[in-house]
Amino acid sequence: MLSIEIVVQRSQATRLRCIVEDADVAPAPDLFVAEVVNTMWKSPRSFLLAPTTRRPAYEMFYVALARREDATLPTTGLQLRKEAERQGIRVA
User: Fold this and answer.
1) Do 26 and 51 sit in the same domain of this protein?
2) Rounded CA gap, 41 and 44, in Å?
């Protein structure tokens, strides 16, 4: 999936990013979210975190990504903020 290739910096990321940046519009089908979830299920950390933290898997994608990138997690969600802080992730 094009967006995943770009976000996770896979081998085709630079070429695909150029295509998207040059486009006037980048429409996405209704299946976009389902495709992202289907592609990202291979990121086991988020799925391993979800049952142990009792937080939704989609939230744990953000936690896993922030951890992997050693990044600050911006969120307005109180429970997500608490979980990220509990795991030693900076939160804004």
Assistant:
1) no
2) 6
What is the Cα–Cα distance from 31 to 67, expressed in whole angstroms? 28
Spatial CA neighbour of 37 closest among 68, 8, 1: 1
Residues with Cβ < 8 Å from 13, sequence gap 6 or more? 5, 6
Mean pLDDT of 47-56: 70
Rank 18-32, 38-52, 54-68, 77-91 by mean pLDDT and report only the highest: 77-91
How many structural domains are present in the chain?
2
Sequence letter at residue 1: M
Question: How many Å apart are CA 17 and CA 2, to the nearest integer?
Answer: 9
Domain range enclosing 11 = 1-42
